[in-house]
Design brief:
Blueprint lengths: L1 E6 L6 H17 L4 E4 L23 H15 L2 E11 L2 E9 L5 E6 L5 E2 L2 E2 L14 E3 L2 E5 L8 H9 L4 E6 L2 E2 L5 H22 L3 E5 L1 E5 L7 E5 L3 E3 L5 E4 L6 E6 L3 H9 L22
Parallel strand pairs: 1-2, 2-3, 9-10, 10-12
Antiparallel strand pairs: 1-17, 3-4, 4-5, 6-7, 8-9, 11-14, 12-15, 13-14, 15-16
Helix pairs in contact: 3-4
């Protein structure tokens, strides 16, 4: 199965950004990609750099956005992983990945479970934690374990997706560094980000696709300078081997061929699921195991 990740800049408006996204989807479809993954909150700037109720208006178009991306998936005959700002009710919003199948039908959705609250990443102000759980989404190209950004630091999320039969782990992402950070700190951050996700692939014997934003986005509140999203989108195989990786500064359509048979081959020689001590993991259900 040929997959494509679309790593791109925010172009100053929803209209201009979507036009660029659609053009890249069409290019990927022309290259015979069957699965196309978009980055986190791909329709807009990363608005969570500050707390501003005006940004809740972005979620008003959620139902229209579903129709738009449905039509794009159908027109290009691709399974499309989108990342949208969902208005569920007044005052209740989610960071939601919606997956469309090749015929435009909604295969399923995932609401981001782990919500960060850090300088420049004030997502708890905007998003209610997901309530759909960690449920793989069945599509015509396989069972997709879709998670979102901050979820990628939690091995429990990847493991549950794997235990429920996911055939791929997929992470739409918006992560970057601050220009004031030292080069050493920037290197530590990006290497940690890549390493933790490759570890999820290894621990679960699954291929993994991580699609990140790229480019500098100013903090519109003026409190901070802004975030330089570090790109580095990548696809790795079931042993964590890098199959394709984008650069840190440029847009890219990243392609890789995924062989579903590879998972069985890897798990047969590294049977981590067989050797799990499920009788001894009670502590995982506690915040911290002091006594």
């Amino acid at each position: 199965m040929k997959t494509a990740l679309i790593q791109q800049y925010y172009r100053g408006s929803k209209k201009a950004t979507i036009e660029a996204t659609v053009s890249m989807i069409e290019e990927a479809a022309g290259e015979k990609a069957e699965l196309v993954v978009l980055q986190e909150l791909h329709q807009s700037e990363y608005f969570c750099q500050s707390e501003d109720t005006a940004f809740f208006d972005y979620a008003e178009s959620f139902e229209d956005d579903l129709i738009f991306w449905r039509d794009i998936a159908k027109a290009n005959e691709v399974v499309l992983v989108t990342s949208l700002f969902e208005k569920r009710a007044p005052g209740l919003y989610h960071n939601t990945a919606v997956v469309f199948d090749k015929d435009g039908s909604v295969a399923g959705r995932y609401r981001k479970m782990h919500i960060p609250d850090d300088p420049g990443f004030y997502e708890k102000f905007y998003f209610t934690p997901g309530d759909l759980g960690f449920e793989p989404i069945d599509t015509s190209v396989g069972r997709l374990g879709v998670l979102i950004c901050w979820d990628q630091w939690y091995p429990e999320a990847a493991r549950i997706m794997a235990l429920k039969g996911a055939e791929l782990l997929i992470y739409p992402t918006a992560i970057g560094w601050f220009d004031a950070d030292s080069d050493t700190e920037k290197s530590r951050q990006v290497e940690s980000w890549i390493t933790i996700q490759r570890a999820h692939a290894v621990a679960n014997g699954l291929p993994l696709l991580s699609c990140n934003r790229v480019g500098f986005e100013a903090d519109q509140s003026g409190v901070m300078d802004g975030i330089r999203f570090w790109g580095h989108s990548f696809i790795c195989g079931a042993q964590g081997e890098i199959l394709a990786q984008a650069e840190s500064e440029n847009e890219a359509i990243l392609y890789a061929d995924i062989d579903h048979n590879r998972t069985k081959e890897v798990r047969d020689i590294w049977p981590f699921l067989r050797d799990r001590r499920i009788d001894a993991y009670d502590c995982l259900l506690k915040r911290y195991c002091d006594t």
